[in-house]
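This part of the workshop introduces the protein records we will be handling. To make this concrete, we reproduce a full record directly below:
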Amino acid sequence: MFKRLINRPIAVVLMAVLLLLSLSVLAERFLRSYEIDLTSEGLYTLSPGTEKLLRDLDEPVRLDFYFSRSLATGYPNLLAYGKRVEETLRKFARTSPATIQVNIIEPEAFSQAEDDAVAAGLSGASLPGGESLYFGLYASNQTDGAEAIPFLAQDREKFLEYDLVKLILSLDVAAMPRLTLLTGLPMAYGDGGPEAAIQGQAQPYVLYQQFREFFRVSEIHADFSAIPAETDVLLIVQPPRLSDDQLYLIDQYVLKGGRAAIFVDPHSESMPQMGDSIGKPSMSNLGPLLASWGVNFDSSKVIGDVEAAQRVNMGGAYGVPDIKDFVLWLALGPIHLNLDDVVTGTTGSLNMASVGSLSKIENSTVEFTPLVSSSTIAMPFDATRASGVVSADLLLRDLQPTGEAYTLSARVQGNVRSAFPDKLASDTNALFEGNIQLVVTADSDLFADRLWVRVEDEMGQQVATPHAGNGGFVLNLLDHLAGSEALLSLRGRGVVQRPFTKVAALRREADIRYRDEEERLQARMQEVEARLLQMEGSDASVGAAYSPEQEAAISRFRDELLATRKALREVNRRLKQDINQLGTKLAIINIAGIPGLIILFVLLRQMVRRRKRASKLKNSSIY
């Protein structure tokens, strides 16, 4: 009987382990199309927009994924990312098997597959052993459309679905998107304005030149009477003063589904100032439009921020630099950017000057998503403080943090009504309300070269070297807005790598537990070392011999020093041991948890069935 009780649990354990291994093998081979996404961000679930786009494709698309899996085994993060790319591509194929063909290719050195990868424009990463690791994607269709992602960078992992959808869409684009630009800034001439162009010294903004590389650009000026019908994105930067009729044109363009990127400013430091406007804030807004779109913009305030303040040379006496923290010029890093948004997720940094703030109007129905924010060590200043003679020291002294993080740029979308209901009656094609898609930013100076890029002449060529991400931010934004509805609906999917938060908490607890003992031992060790040094050096300079008492004391202090150091090493050893044990315990729980639950379930079920059987036998024997 005892032997049977021992053997039965062992048999159950073995059966559970074999069952788990068998299920893993069978699931990998036969159940690929059946999955449950238990990740909180839905990392392995396609968005509805992506599924609709894949099903609506007009022609088949071939996706060749080149991945050197065997070389990636030494890089666990890359290997995990590669598996996620493969699973996502297979999901694309399952969603639309008639139009999506996926090929997983491992290019070996000097093979035809490697030649194909190079011909497709993929770039291999050189490894220490001289091998090339390929991790790229080539897409093609039946009408000679072809695009590639040369190497899938891990810093864009959260935007994987977005990049894949964009790659597929790019196969069908016959021409570059149309960008319509309305601005009061001297983008086409540089800071010198038209006068510099007349003298042959014009230096257009770097961003203005880049617009023409990626878009078909049309410009409308202060007297415009229509917005080009073929506009894909309307870019408004520090607009001139507009009439109600012109504002109405923008209103209707946005309500009818037109995408817009809008940059207004409480004080533009890049606008040429003339006549009696010198020394006054150069402000821009869009009249009643922003309020009708659910956005509050106070054009009389600029944001000062201690944490994000740029270090600026205020011009010291006798040519000596006077470097100050200038709280109205902001150097914004990843902590100030929305890393889950495809526009700002990989921007890295932004430089802004005399920037305003935005907020959602109370009770507005729009979705207001901050893209760029100040720190909480900030406050609004009157915009007049940014013009004329500005004292960095006075601004810093007067800044009283409000504890609020101010929104500097935001994505705005949702259903809104027209700002000009009185004009609708005379316009048969007008919309009273519509669904808007736009981004509003409370700064226009970020376009100026001096804030983000150095332009130098090298052998007769103008070479631009960025030192901030302003250009990438604007181009990402315009490219995103010019995309399809499927792209606009996609956001970052959070992080794939998760820290072991429980281990980290236990590590902190263990660290605190030993910290007091460690500090006490370190203090004692310093005290003993000082005392020992004092005794050994007191008479050594005159060559005097130590007395027996001194030698005994020195020997005693040396022994105590050695003992203290040993105790300190023991404390550190126990700390590391405790942390390792905690990590091991959690790993065992994570790995063996499911088999353990299966075993427990089987044993409990067997006990219940045995008791029921015994109860039935007992009842039957009574009768």
